[in-house]
Fold:
Amino acid sequence: MKIHITEPTFAKATAGKEDHKALAGKFCISAEYLHFCISYMAGKKADNIIITIDGWSSCGKSTLARQLARKLGYVYIDSGAMYRAITLYFLRNHIDWTSKKEVAKALADIELEFIFNEKLDQSEIFLNGENVEYVIRDMVVAEKVSEISAIKEVRDFAVAQQRKMGKSKGIVMDGRDIGTVVFPKAELKIFMTADNAIRVERRFKEIFEKNPNVTLDEVQHNLEMRDYIDSNREVSPLRKAADALVLDNTNITQEEQLKKALSWVKELKSGKSKIENRK
Structure:
């Protein structure tokens, strides 16, 4: 897996040798995109940290992770998209995921990239050169992703890539086992939760826009199934890290949850040894 950003293009910017606005104009890109690239290429800064966001499906993990990354100038890594892309490959190529031999061969043929979409101001995942950011959100993939992501070889493959991406810190990554397995020593761990009925409603609205034929019962069944598989799988089950901060967003807005998370980052960077409201 690789991030589609090349170092020579932004060497001057990361070295601080040229005005960022002027450099952005020179390369015909937006200042926001340049800022993203600089954040990634600059490497580990003194106060950069790793932020992990774990939690149940449809709790808004990706939304908060993207918001935090933009505000802090960090790189956002959607670990869930990685597992969905792998699942999509398995389904398309009729891989028997009960066969270790077939799984190993399939993983060797998979290349995942996160490429920044300047127009949408977000990273999108590519599977073997194809943009699959929206295809992987389909219900067909959703129904199998928990099962396939529970396979040890699949998780080992993904976790190894995720850890490489976190070496320089300055990242926000969301998923199911990011704070417990991928980055157990992350400086800030957030565990998100919400009322089940709210989660079902959110997920239904998201899927309905792409598939008007989906029913509320189907969505509820899918969420319940994913919750069970995620929390009961043998490899890296969904758990709240002992030192994670709980963020229940049942009755708060996206703006309020971002404000809360930013306050935790501020407290952490201010040198406080203990953040309040740790549950």
